[in-house]
Amino acid sequence: MTPDAAFRLTELDRAGWPDIRDQVMQFTHDDPLGQPRSYPGYPRWPLARCRPGLWPPLERVLWSRRCERALSERPPSRGVLSRLLQFSHGVSASNGRGPTPSSGGLQALELYVVALTGGWLPAGAYHYDRARHALAGLGTGGDRETWRSRVPALGLIEGGTLLWVLVGDGARITGKYGARGWRFLLLEAGHLMQSLCLMSSRLGWATVPLGACFEQEVARALALPEGDAVLYVGVCGGVPPA
Questions:
Q1: What is the pLDDT of residue 200?
Q2: CA 46, 144, 45 angle in degrees (round to 5)?
Q3: Residue 222's pLDDT band (cuts 50, 70, 90)
C-alpha cells in the first residue's frame, strides 16, 4: 500500500460519516479529560512560572520569524526555556487545556526535549510535564552525533542546543476518532511547532522544523509507550550575531 493510499483511507465521505459520528458520540473516558502525561519517580527539573510579556507585539514576531541555518550551541537559561515551554505548550486552563488546539479536548500531543548541550540542564532527553511545568529526565543521553544519526536533517543545520520531538498519543486519540484521529494529531503537531517557532523568535532564539528523522529509532531512544508515534522534530538554538 502506498503512503497516499494509507492517507486516503482516513478521508471522510458521506457513506462513512455515520460510523465516525456514532463513535465520537459514544466515546467515554475513565480519567479526567485532557489529563497531561507525567513521569512519576523520574528526576525532575522545575521551570519558572512566567507572566505574559507585552513586547514585542505579535505582528513583529510573525513578520520577523525566520529559519536559521547556523545556531548557537549555547544552552538557554532556565528563564528562557521556562517561558518558551510555558507559552508554547503549558497548561493555562482546566482539563489540561493550553495554547495548542486539541481535538476533542483530549490533549493527545506530547512534547519531548533533547538537550544537546549540557548546562544547568544536563545533556539528555526529557519529557515536558505540562501540568507541573517541569522537565522529567528520562536518563537518555544527549550525544549530538548519536542524535544526528537518528535525525539526518540535523546535518543541514550548524549548531543548535535543543531538539524538539513532538509525539502523538495514538491510544488516546483513536479511542474517540478511530484512525482519522492521526490526521488531527498531525494538524496539532503543526500548531505546536509554529508556537515553538514564534516563541523562540520572540525570545531572540530560532526553532527550525526538520523533515527527516528515523521515527522508530527516535521512539525507541525515548522509550515511548506503545501506540505513540513521533510526528515532528525541530532544532532550537540562539541566533549568532549578524
A1: 95
A2: 5
A3: very high
Strand partners, 236: 162, 207
Cell 545533556, located at residue = 123
- Report the C-alpha gap between 55 and 145 in whole angstroms: 37
Confidence of residue 7 (pLDDT cuts 50, 70, 90): low
Give the chain's mean pLDDT. Answer: 89
Residues 38-54 as b/e (b if ≥16 CB within 10 A, e otherwise) read eeeeeebbebeebeeee
CA dihedral of 158, 58, 75, 156, whole degrees rounded to 10? -10
Distances (CA, A) of 65 to 30, 81, 100, 228: 42, 18, 19, 30
Residue 24: all three cell numbers together? 465520537
Q: Which fold has domain 42-238?
A: NADH Oxidase (3.40.109)
Q: Where are the domains of the chain?
A: 42-238
Closest to 114 (Cα-Cα) out of 142, 89, 150, 145: 142
* Segment 66-122, tens digit of pLDDT: 888 889 999 999 999 999 999 999 999 998 899 999 999 999 999 999 999 999 999
Find residue 162's DSSP bridge partners. Answer: 115, 236
Distances in Å between the alpha carbon of 59 and those of 64, 82, 207?
Answer: 9, 23, 18
Whether the Cβ atoms of residue 98 and residue 90 lie closer than 8 Å to each other = yes
pTM for this prediction: 0.88
Dihedrals φ, ψ of 118, to 5°?
-80, 155
